[in-house]
Amino acid sequence: MAKKYKTGLALSGGAARGLAHLGVVKALYEKGIKPDVISGTSAGSVAGAFLADGHDPEKMLDIFLEKKLYQFLGLTFGKLGLLKISGLRDVLKKHLKAKKFEDLEIPLYVACTNLNSGEVEYFSEGDLLERVVASSSIPVLFTPVNMNGSLYADGGILDNLPVTPIRKKCKKLIGVHVNYTGPEKEIDSMIKIAERSFHLSTGARIREVAEECDLFIEPEELKKYGLLDVDKGKKMFEIGYKEAKKKLKESKIFK
């Protein structure tokens, strides 16, 4: 069976670390590599939506850096989550031209976890905004999204690098994972323990998934940054850019 797309791009979750995806994409564009299909989880779904909508990665960085962290969040005393990511919904609504997946310039697949069925679902049709917000809703921290009578949360719970929906559709696949899960020497606070536990649980299958990618990019330096370090976005962007340049130079496939 012939592959439908030349190059696919799978983007992992990682909250604020997802800004490194934009640096990676800048390096890919400079190399003349533009994806024909994109898949994303959580922060990767946000980056994927903007890229599929035709936005420039550096301009995307500016969009997210112009807001402070608290502007993305809203405190809620509901029983389903501590915070609402109402600010993210507002950013998507303001800057995305597309309202539905079908309106995007590049096909996009967004991974969400159906908390009721306990399964991951990949969306590529219908309402774009709600699917991206649902995919970005980290359990307990953020309120899940109710869609069609089921509660949906962060796709990274079950698939933090969604190669599954596009692997068989493209000739070459680039996977970008921004949650380094290698050895960690210093774990010196409850927040560090929580973040480390989250990364390990969502990254449990990453090594296996990485083998399905023709080019796998995982910037180790990102481990220095927390899930909510939006203000460090420029540094993470540069880390993603430099790591992608390095991997592209080493690659025998993407010449």
Helix and strand arrangement:
Layout: E1 5-11, H1 19-30, E2 37-41, H2 43-52, H3 57-65, H4 69-72, E3 74-75, E4 83-84, H5 86-95, E5 108-114, E6 119-123, H6 128-135, E7 145-147, E8 150-154, E9 170-176, H7 190-202, H8 206-210, E10 215-217, H9 233-250
Parallel strand pairs: 1-2, 1-9, 2-5, 9-10
Antiparallel strand pairs: 3-4, 5-6, 5-8, 7-8
Helix pairs in contact: 1-3, 1-9, 2-6
Please explain how this structure is put together.
The longest helix has 18 residues, at 233-250. The model is unreliable at 69-83 (pLDDT under 50). Helix 1 packs antiparallel against helix 3, helix 1 (19-30) crosses helix 9 and helix 2 (43-52) runs antiparallel to helix 6 (128-135). The strands form two sheets. Strands 1, 2, 5, 6, 7, 8, 9 and 10 form an eight-stranded mixed β-sheet that branches. A two-stranded antiparallel sheet has the order 3-4. With 255 residues, the protein is an alpha/beta fold. It has helices at 19-30, 43-52, 57-65, 69-72, 86-95, 128-135, 190-202, 206-210, 233-250; strands spanning 5-11, 37-41, 74-75, 83-84, 108-114, 119-123, 145-147, 150-154, 170-176, 215-217. 35% of the residues lie in helices and 18% in strands. The protein is globular, with a radius of gyration of 17 Å.
